[in-house]
Write a structure and sequence with these properties.
- By secondary structure, the chain is of the alpha/beta class.
- 31% of the residues lie in helices and 22% in strands.
- The protein is built from 19 helices and 25 strands.
- A 7-stranded parallel β-sheet has the order 11-10-9-12-13-14-15, with helices on both faces. The chain has a 6-stranded mixed β-sheet with strand order 17-16-18-19-20-21, with helices on one face.
- Helix 11 links the parallel strand 12 and strand 13.
- The longest helix has 23 residues.
- The two termini are 25 Å apart.
């Protein structure tokens, strides 16, 4: 099924003498599935600078709420049932949750395409259906740094409290008892702590444990060994960590690979009398297996801040166990962390709603802020090259094969092109369909439409200071409404560079041009002769259309040339017709950027 060209594209794809204005051309990808999100009035409203609506589904620090109210309509609705959330979400552009609200596939489907950002005020995102978010083009961002220290401190607090029986001794003393001999603890100094998960929180726990005189080892399949060594920590295998540790502190995310990773088999590998702290996710421990290990004396004590089900059942054997210290998910619960998390997540959500690239995106390319800044002009160039290329495809042609070439002096490992590929995909798909494409769902949407995008890199000599010299986009096996855009091998080919921070079109087909990719563009193939620039410029001037740039690329003097004209406004149909009637112009096309 073909997708009709949107109304914002000029319905004059090409004029060739002596043809008159033709109706809109139609281009097609494979038919999208019924669940692909379409643009609706909500997206249009946002494009017209209407305030977005953000649902805050769990309590958020006042500093964050104040910041949020500055740019959005804020709906603070707590303790919503799944049905209530699904009903309310269709009126919201973003939602901010903590760990207690499940953002399920049903929530995304109920949003009818309006929901664009899910903000998780914290680190873990196991309560958000990432696959559904990605399919629906919804960006998921978290706040991974603000509560790092608070979580690490809570881990150390539980470690010390467990070792010295603080909670049990407190309860006993308050009950009127004085049981000094019953609550003899163990020392931390000289003991081996295994940190399972050496990310932000895990590494901070390791630093503090080293300060307490503990020997610290860590297991993390993704942690760089040199970073661990820098703070005196050795990275070891999973089994070695279990068998060597006197204390185990868990700091891993909950994923299919880590779900119930501490089970009967794992407990059997541990030292008898090991002590376990968990301030990560409850689901990483098989809680029934932990009770069995506690009863058998394999695990001497456990200190838990998180549980598989929160809150846990009142009669939970694990919670009620005399050798278990529990807290109600307090890892991030300091005044400083709560305010910090609120501000961090609001800034991430606000930036995402404004179309900015998010450094804390969970289901989009994870790119450091400095790289985002460096690639920003090339991101714009990539989308515009995609838009140009697809608008050059003749009506009825199916776009299936695209090749992107990056020319750079940088080694492949030093150039992350995922953002650029996503934006090229956005540029290719949006002008010829009603799909809404963003960094999150670009690859998914391309796959659903049968669009195959391959990438090639050209390694140049020279300084790697600039990330890219040029980007080239080619569409194969299609006809072009502007044949001069075809390369010698028959593909539509456009090429661009960034000059002084501004995207420029530098090649169309085999013709060299140089025009800023701002506003819109008129491409003309003409006989190279004097007065052509003046003639076309006069026609546009009479229609009060401002010309921003003009460039001519030619094969040789007095032969064929391509003139690229950047315009601020869309010319009238009459003006385009006059340009087409100039005797020396053989064909032309208007392209909306």
């Amino acid at each position: 099924m073909a997708s009709t060209t949107p109304s914002n594209l000029l319905s004059v794809p090409t004029l060739r003498k002596p043809s008159l204005i033709s109706p809109p051309s139609r281009l097609c990808f494979a038919s999208p599935p019924s669940h692909v999100i379409r643009r609706g009035s909500t997206i249009v409203a946002l494009a017209m600078d209407a305030k977005p609506t953000v649902l805050v589904a769990e309590k958020l620090g006042e500093a964050g709420l104040d910041l949020l109210r500055g740019f959005a309509n804020v709906d603070c609705s707590y303790n919503l049932s799944p049905e209530e959330l699904c009903t309310k979400i269709s009126l919201c552009d973003a939602i901010i949750v903590r760990s207690g609200t499940k953002v399920s596939r049903e929530v995304f489907e109920s949003s009818s395409g309006r929901l664009k950002v899910v903000g998780r005020a914290g680190v873990g995102i196991d309560n958000v259906d990432l696959a559904a978010a990605t399919e629906h083009g919804c960006l998921v961002v978290n706040a991974p740094t603000a509560n790092t220290i608070a979580a690490a401190e809570h881990g150390i607090a539980l470690l010390a409290a467990m070792a010295r029986n603080i909670a049990q001794a407190d309860a006993s003393t308050k009950a009127g008892k004085w049981q000094r001999s019953k609550f003899v603890g163990v020392s931390l100094v000289g003991k081996t702590l295994a940190v399972m998960g050496f990310g932000k929180v895990g590494s901070e726990v390791a630093r503090r444990a080293k300060g307490l005189g503990m020997h610290v080892i860590a297991h993390d399949p993704y942690a760089p060994a040199d970073r661990a060594r820098a703070i005196g920590v050795e990275i070891v295998s999973f089994d070695e960590a279990l068998s060597s540790a006197d204390f185990i502190s868990l700091h891993m995310p909950l994923t299919p690979a880590t779900s119930k990773i501490l089970n009967d088999e794992a407990f059997a590998k541990m030292k008898k009398g090991v002590r376990i702290v968990n301030v990560a996710r409850g689901g990483v421990i098989d809680e029934d297996a932990l009770v069995r290990a506690l009863d058998a004396g394999v695990v001497a004590q456990a200190a838990l801040d998180v549980f598989t089900q929160e809150p846990p059942a009142k009669d939970s054997k694990l919670v009620q166990h005399e050798h278990v210290t529990v807290t109600p998910h307090l890892g991030a619960s300091t005044m400083e962390a709560q305010e910090g998390v609120a501000i961090e997540i609001v800034e991430a959500v606000a930036g995402a709603l404004k179309g900015e690239l998010a450094a804390t995106a969970v289901n989009a390319p994870m790119v450091p802020a400095e790289v985002l800044s460096e690639l920003a002009p090339f991101v714009s160039l990539s989308e515009k090259l995609g838009r140009l290329a697809v608008q050059l495809v003749a009506g009825g042609s199916g776009v299936k094969t695209v090749k992107v070439t990056y020319a750079s002096a940088r080694a492949p490992d030093d150039l992350d092109t995922r953002l650029l590929r996503a934006m090229i995909t956005k540029g290719l798909i949006e002008p010829i369909s009603s799909a809404f494409v963003n960094l999150v769902n670009a690859d998914y949407t391309a796959k659903q439409r049968g669009l195959r995008i391959s990438e090639e890199r050209i390694l140049l000599d020279g300084s790697p200071e600039c990330p890219l010299e040029f980007i080239q986009v080619q569409i194969a096996n299609v006809e072009s409404k502007f044949p001069s855009a075809l390369s010698e091998s028959g593909e539509i080919k456009v090429e661009g560079r960034v000059k002084d921070g501004i995207p420029h079109l530098t090649k169309v087909g085999s013709f060299e041009v140089d025009v800023s990719l701002e506003g819109s563009l008129i491409l003309c193939r003409q006989v190279d002769q004097p007065g052509m620039i003046g003639t076309v410029g006069s026609i546009l001037g009479e229609e009060n259309v401002n010309v921003s740039f003009m460039s001519v690329g030619r094969i040789a003097p007095r032969k064929q040339a391509v003139m690229a004209i950047g315009v601020d406004d869309k010319p009238t149909m009459g003006a385009l017709k006059k340009i087409g009637e100039i005797p020396a112009i053989e064909e032309f096309v208007f392209l909306k950027l």
